[in-house]
Amino acid sequence: MNILHINDKIENSGGVETNISQLVNLGKDYGLCGSWIGIYTIKGSLEIKIYPNDEIVFKGDHASFFVFIKNYIVEKDIDIIHIHSLSSPKLLEHFFKLKPVVRSIHEPRILCPGQGKFWRKSEEICNKPFGLHCILDAYKEGCCNRHPKRLLEAYSNVKWETTKGNKGYSALIANSEYIINEAIKVGFTNDKLYLNPHMTPLVEERELKDRSKEKCKSLLFVGRLSRTKGVHYFINLGLELLKKGHNITLDIVGDGHDRSYFESLIPEEYNESFHFHGWQTRENINSFFKNCYLLVFPSIYPEAFGISGIEAMMHGKPVVGFDVGGVNTWLKHNETGYLVPVKEERLLIKRIEILLNDIEKYNSMCKKARTVALKEFQPKIHMGTLYEIYQNCFNKNGF
């Protein structure tokens, strides 16, 4: 089958793009030939880039865009359109007319105008389903852009998704039970929702590295540098562990608008223990997983899944993180690491210290993390389920 993946970008900026690149690069081995385009809105006009090249292959208005896409679908003999992170009812309604459209719910953007189910002012998770209160909460809780035009657009997008979009999609793919439950709360049709947790490429046994005997141990964070990702918690716990005399380094892989703020949180005398690496190539990221002692997953907003967690587990490394959103899909408490109630910083530090001090416990969790990753998150499992979803949608629609 030929699949067209559509996102709002092709540049890697987190888990969404990691997942799409995996689908495109691994798909051929499972009978799924994928291509990936990024759609950019620049000053009212649309631009298209095709992965993996960074060149603009189209630039124009909506009318000419629709002609381009229709011809591209014919040229590539596309069977299924797979939408990822894209908020544009006008574009989506057009795609519905061309081919069966499948959507991955990577994050709550089709459930929440703020796209995160998170109140930024109080740094608390929002447990309310979408509704008119979202307009007020944008001002009260800082959970969405408060510019009237942008707020109305964000609200209208979710309203469209939960009504017309709900009818137009052939399937909605969630990577955790958390997302499925949130989707049902706002009215998405249960029989269109499919659970298919993320995958991570197989890492051969010979590539694993035992770090239990290292004198200086690397605690790793991988992700966007934002407060929602809990980078300030990672820095604080690092400082506390260093003050207690633990021989550790804190490796931070990723980037974001808040990077300078996070760097400012580190006292000068501890600067050498913290390393900001920015975004890295896939090969380099794998090297960080290979060489770390454990992964810290300090997100304080409800992550839909958390790909970096299963990547660490595939490398045989345990994870210590906050119990938010769909994280418990893969982080099994006291087995593959430790789940800690969100924002319980003292307990987070205590759990990390257990793994720093108890090598027997650490090695046991390393082994279990690897076992779970191999059993539940290998590509063949994810791709097999995805193929069935695509085939079902293709057979049901008369395009």
UniProtKB/TrEMBL annotation:
Q: Which Pfam families match?
A: Glycos_transf_1
The molecular function terms in GO held by this entry are: glycosyltransferase activity
Q: Where is the Glycosyl transferase family domain?
A: 211-371
Sorted alphabetically, the keyword list is: Transferase
Question: Which InterPro entries does the record associate with it?
Answer: Glyco_trans_1
Origin: domain of life:
Bacteria
| Name of this protein | Glycosyltransferase
Source species of the chain: Winogradskyella endarachnes
